[in-house]
Design brief:
Order of helices and strands of chain A: EEHEEEHHHH
Oligomer: heterodimer
Shape of chain B: elongated
Low-confidence stretches of chain A: none
Order of helices and strands of chain B: HHEEEEHHHH
Number of strands of chain B: 4
Distance between the termini of chain A: 51 Å
CATH superfamily of the largest domain in chain A: [2Fe-2S]-binding domain
Helix content of chain B: 40-55%
Structural class of chain A: alpha+beta
Strand order of the largest sheet of chain A: 4-3-5
Radius of gyration of chain B: 24 Å
CATH class of the largest domain in chain A: Mainly Alpha
Shape of chain A: globular
Structural class of chain B: mainly alpha
CATH topology of the largest domain in chain A: DNA polymerase, domain 1
Distance between the termini of chain B: 60 Å
Helix content of chain A: 25-40%
CATH architecture of the largest domain in chain A: Orthogonal Bundle
């Protein structure tokens, strides 16, 4: 066991865990932040996506010992950012969610895309969201919501 | 014939003979040197086409994984010219600065795909021939403008090259396979190839 200090959604947290423990388990089991989901545990579905120093990251396969002092943002904190808020609003407006299990990961990936691409094409969306699987197949609504969020953000830029 | 004239003619004949001998010797030496260089290149090539190396020297829009060189999971794509994926799905979405042995994810500094001009495969994921890879590696328009010493330094010191000999554990806990030579042997073969003038095999 070892003690790790983490910056999660702008708050400092301290956990005492085995260094090999993946970040997802630390978030869910130690910090009780269950918005980030366990899907596959092998970085094959994207349900566990968080932002690590701004990079969409699959938290199920990143040992806590490799996090260092990089800030972590989860689905619980992404709405504090303009892009995150816009994506969450678009998700509700577009009624994207069906069962919802994968959606926190989908939103985290979508925010990462929109932070770098103001007017994403279908290809941009398909490539950036390619690691996030939805068994309800809400992909058309995800694509629509991302475009709606992008449009809202561009209005804000104007 | 006056004696002095005989001496001049003899000297001239001797000089021609010596020069011709030197040229023949040089040619034999060159041939031998080239053969040694090509033998060294064969060793270098055997490493380059091993999965730890060639999986990220693809000609396609995606990296490969595993000894069977299957397409990378999670629909990972090359992204821009830096070959680091796309926003939302970067290489660093999984690959960190070091191997993550507890989860089986390999890692190293600046994890990325080799640029397309450095591809060592065709678009059907088949390794290019020894001659074709050699031509790429010695073409300064396609090798980041590296000369011989630059290539040697790259093979000797580049973090992602060295990663091939420290590839970590797979998700099932077993070790990833290594290239067919040790890193020291690889560097030594590269040095011999470069000292021989980076000869390339003939052919396509």
């Amino acid at each position: 066991m070892a003690t790790f200090k983490l910056n999660v959604n702008g708050q400092l947290k301290e956990v005492d865990v085995d260094p090999s423990t993946p970040l997802l388990w630390v978030l869910r089991e130690e910090l009780k932040m269950t918005g980030t989901k366990f899907g596959c545990g092998i970085s094959a579905c994207g349900a566990c996506t968080v932002h690590l120093a701004g990079v969409a990251t699959f938290s199920c396969i990143i040992p806590i010992s490799l996090i260092g002092d990089r800030p972590i943002v989860t689905i619980e904190g992404i709405g504090q950012e303009a892009v995150g808020r816009a994506v969450q609003d678009a998700w509700v407006e577009t009624d994207v969610v069906q069962c919802g299990y994968c959606q926190s990961g989908q939103i985290m990936a979508a925010v990462a895309l929109l932070k770098h691409t103001k007017q994403p094409t279908d290809k941009n969306i398909d490539e950036s969201m390619g690691g996030n699987i939805c068994r309800c197949a809400t992909y058309p609504r995800i694509r629509e919501a991302i475009k709606n969020a992008a449009a809202e953000l561009r209005k804000g830029d104007a | 014939m006056p004696a002095i004239r005989v001496r001049v003619v003899v000297s001239a004949v001797a000089a021609v003979a010596i020069t011709a001998g030197a040229l023949v010797h040089a040619r034999v030496f060159d041939r031998s040197n080239t053969a040694q260089g090509l033998a060294a290149w064969d060793q270098v090539y055997s490493v380059l086409i091993s999965p730890r190396c060639i999986n990220c020297h693809t000609a396609t829009n995606y990296p490969q994984q595993g000894d069977d060189r299957h397409r990378h999971v999670a629909n990972v794509v090359r992204g821009g010219p830096e070959g680091k994926g796309v926003p939302g799905l970067n290489c660093s979405s999984c690959h960190q600065e070091t191997n993550a042995d507890s989860t089986g994810v390999p890692g190293g500094h600046n994890w990325h795909l080799a640029p397309l001009e450095m591809r060592w495969q065709d678009t059907n994921d088949r390794p290019l021939s020894s001659a074709a890879v050699c031509r790429q590696m010695t073409d300064r328009a396609r090798n980041h403008n590296l000369d011989g010493p630059g290539l040697l330094k790259h093979h000797k010191e580049e973090a992602l090259v060295k990663w091939a000999w420290n590839p970590g554990r797979k998700p099932d806990g077993t070790m990833r396979t290594l290239p067919p030579l040790t890193h020291e042997q690889f560097v030594a073969a590269t040095r011999r190839w470069i000292e021989a003038g980076t000869p390339c095999p003939r052919g396509k």
